[in-house]
Amino acid sequence: MLQGKILAIDDEKNIRHLIQNEFTLEDFDVTTAGSGEEGLVLFDAEAFDVVLLDLKLPHMSGLETLTRLKQKAPFVEVIMITGYGDIHSAVEAIKLGARDYVTKPFKLDELLALVSKAVQDNRRRSKTIPVDEPPRVTDTNQFLLCPSPSMQKVYSLVEKVGPTDSTVLIQGETGVGKDVLAEYIHRNSLSRDGPFVILDCGLLTRTLAESELYGHKKGAFSGASEGRIGLVEKSHGGTLFLDEIGNIDLDLQKKFLRFLETGKIRRLGETREIQIDTRIVLATNLSLDEAVREGKIRSDLFYRMAAFSISLEPLRKRPEDILPLSRHFFLNIAAGNRTAKALSKPAAELLTAYPWPGNIRELKATMNKLNLLTNEDTVLPEHLPAHLQLNIHTLPQSNRTLEDIEKEHIINILAETGGNQSRAAKILGINRKTLLKRYINLKFFHDLCCRFEAYCPVPPQFPIATQIH
User: Fold this and answer.
1) Structural domain of 418
2) Which residues pair with 378 in a beta bridge?
3) Calpha distance 101→28 (Å, rounded)
4) Same domain as 357, residue 303
5) Mind listing the pLDDT tens digit for each residue in 231-253?
6) From the centroid of its chain, how far is CA 168?
7) Of 66, 96, 128, which closes a domain?
8) Which residues contact 154 (CB under 8 A, 6 or more apart)?
9) pTM of the entire structure?
10) Which of 108, 164, 175, 177 could form a disulfide with 359 if both were Cys (CB 3.0 to 4.6 A apart)?
């Protein structure tokens, strides 16, 4: 029985062959491509359950390929393939909508488990969400679990603005949960029984944006073989949430401003105007003052949007929320069918110490991976991804080995020297060869590359990993 259809995009022929051979044995239908351009052509030709996408591709990068895949099919499940030194790029991929990532050399059984779960989720969603309907957020309870002072302030603001018809602007970094807060506002509004409609403006091309928003009549433009109702009209009686509003072009911003002021729209190709009664919630990850100065957002639209604004702080600024959210994700995964996994105290401390550049989206992906790949009921530090384990200084003294303390000291010295091994060795009182031979085994070297490429402003001066054996 066919398990699912996979598109593997990787410029390394041996990786493509490995994936094709192993997954075919597990009853998957596998198609491969050696570049992002080739992968997009294949993706247009047939439907796939999961795309395995290498981050480093020639010509068109993995991140650009991911963006184009999401523009074509926002719900497609994409798992990134990356090296140890590209963790920061993998986090960026999660921000752009990737489901998860694996690092080379990956374990086939782990990749198989991730793909199988992605196929299940994709097919379950396709059965429950009509093709022509926008996505709907269902995990609003995660905001009810956040004890940080900044989130308590957010709840207070929602209580005030929820029962009104005011337009609300949500500001915050990518992955911080703006979509979840938008539905939380909807559920606290007078139009809560109406539809909640989402449009991610970041996934729209300029030519499609106006049609998606306002709809069109048959023959309005080339390819318009039938009429279509736009998302604004579909949200009548409910709430329209426009995510990443700063991505629509200036001409469309002008038309959208008119809709905000009058409540009227006109489908493309029609002359008749339609009155729409809908609550508008907007979101952006841009600094609006800078966006206005740079001409990305019209000043008149800015003043209209900013009438009532709610800011969501990044997860690194509200560490009190990390563990409640982690437990919440584990409970949701278990969904009453089995006991949810628990976090050991050392693992919980490492999770709290990590800065989570991908915010809640990255945290959720990490919890999903831990649940899928960890057999034990309790998550221990060694189960965590390598770049989270590097925060060893958070462990209590009684839990730290001599090796832990040595590693922490080396990390701190390398951080001070911007990754310069010679300077670090001089400070440590040893020569560079001793530093490499005595302390840095292959895994630890990879971990250091990951840490410095992700967070250090000075490029690390390490040799490539394949030169150390």
Assistant:
1) 319-467
2) 342
3) 19
4) no
5) 999 999 999 999 988 888 888 88
6) 23
7) 128
8) 143, 181, 310, 312
9) 0.69
10) 175
